Amino acid sequence: MTHGVDLTAYNTMGFAVRAHDYVGISDWSAFLDWWRAPAQVRLHAQPRFILGGGSNLVLTQDIAALILHVQTRGIHEVRRDTKYVWCEVAAGESWHDWVMHTVAQGWAGIENLALIPGTVGACPVQNIGAYGMEAGQAIEYVSVLDFASGEMVRLSAEDCRFAYRDSLFKQAQYAGQARYLIASVCFKLQHDLSDWQASLGYGDVAQRVAELASGREVRPADVAQAVIAIRQSKLPDPKVLGNAGSFFKNPVVTQAQADELKARYEKLPCYPMSNGMVKLAAGWLIEQAGWKGKNSASGHVGVYEKQALVLVHHGGGTGAELMQLAHQIAEDVFKQFGVRIEPEPIVL
Predict the structure, then answer these.
(1) DSSP string covering 154-208, please?
(2) One of 165, 208, 219, 231 is an active-site residue; which one?
(3) pLDDT tens figures, 194-218
(4) What is the per-residue pLDDT for 45?
């Protein structure tokens, strides 16, 4: 354990904050031995925060909690049958690298989720999703450390209670803190593509894929490359311009409210959901409210000029300043549309 660690490089917004206590986890067995040792019992009740790639995170101040930074690596094929392959992936693996590994093997199941920043261990927490696909659809089980018992537990996809940008991992607590620390995630992916159908219903993915396939049979890699091209055209590279990806969740409204808004705003993008509700495009609402490309009074933070759903850090700003801007945006959207939009990242 080290003290006073600078977390600027560990959050993609690039906010300069420090962690009072920090533990980097690169060897899972070694970490378990350390955590279970009598000398660490005092830490079990201390406030803690689990850090992955820092890509879905807004740090507003120095952190007094114990930071557990998951950095483990490894991909292991568990089994396969004539149609599917099951792979267990360490929580510290790069999510995008894992997606690209799957499409390089010709496997289908998470190709629409290419270029989403962060780690594999973070994907079940948020149930990350994009372009009509969610990670939870491909997850078989998640292996976790249960802080309540101190034991390793395997949670099935059903146990994880996946929902839109939500899961058990956001809700389950022990002694007022997150109950589980994710060690690895097992994915069920399709390797026999004889009956595979690409998910092409969102944005201009279908057009991009058609151009890439150029008449031949579509492959998962085509979908991934199309998504990468679209995301790169809309989203800034966090290594160049601090950001946390899509900052606001797409709001979900009733069919009646969607119909009323559609009558007033003909071009409003609406996506019917299986439960009868309708998902609206938060980026469109923010842009119509006049925020696209605008900065805060200080100029330190602002809304990305190419995509209103993305808030950016130009440098010299703070997480508190960013959250103040986010509040102003949400209030303006509510005043104009009567719809509440909520931040997607974790705010600490």
Answers:
(1) EEEHHHHT-BTTB-HHHH-EETTEE-EEEEEEEEEEE---TT------STTHHHH
(2) 165
(3) 999 999 987 789 999 999 998 899 9
(4) 87
